[in-house]
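Known limitations

Files may contain more than one protein. Parsers should not assume a single record per file. Below, a two-record file is shown to illustrate correct handling: read the sequence, read the token line, then continue until end of file.
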Amino acid sequence: MGSTDIMGPQWVYLSIINAVAIAVIATNKVLAQSVRNVFKANLTWVYIALFLVAGLSITGAVNKTESFVTYARFASAITAFYVLVFY
């Protein structure tokens, strides 16, 4: 794809798969109960807190562009984890 970062396209593909999976989860009423159960777990709130702290740390980063890219990858990884948990 002409990317200089050979790892870059895999994160784009993961984001696309996440978007499709979230759309399926959002339209499936049976999965709604599993979504509620996941958000009752303490580990979910730990991940959310970690995600927020990582986002705040971008403000103090020396290389803000790389920090934002890494944060986006972290968001994709967390989203993929929860998509798997919901199923």
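...continuing to the second record:
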Amino acid sequence: MDFNINIVFYIIAYVVGGIPFGVLLAKKYAGVDVRESGSKSIGATNVLRVVKEQNPALAKKLSAATLAFDAIKGAAVLGLAMLFEVSDMTLWSIAVLAVLGHCFSPFLKFNGGKGVATAIGTILVLLPVEAAVGLAVWFIVAKTLKISSISSLSGVIAAVASSFFISPEIPHAPMVILGLIIFYKHIPNIMRLIKKEEKAVV
């Protein structure tokens, strides 16, 4: 029975994680497809960048909503799974699958976003202190450099690294996997950073 419950939650995590809120919100309220402009990402940063060209006030609202929904979708599945008292490893597997769903969405022909917001949502549920560390580093770097990719990757590194010191008893492989997924999805950004072509968010 536990095995069946786990499988159900794995499927739910991947499918719910794959809901492309950035695409849906930008299309409905701004009439644009964020996959065709800017960085072509479906995340909050590109929603802000693309919609800002026609409506700066709306861009901020849609970007904030995208960030919130992308974070909540992974956290919500974890919260539901906790009600069924599944194992810790099942919870970590749900977290990874939610992020994979966002990054390789079944609704977007297995394309997707960078996974940062969804990862934040899941880590806030499982390791709130480490999530707070990552968010603090993200905020400081974002305010200082104003380059989304650098702030996101810095926050991820901080959250993953701090987990080894703050929570040495947990299985760290899932946290490392989450970090690797996000870094993989940021390869184009990393290449632009190397070439000094990555644009700041203003």
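Parsers that stop after the first record will miss the second one. For reference, the second record is described as follows. DSSP finds ten helices and no strands in the chain.
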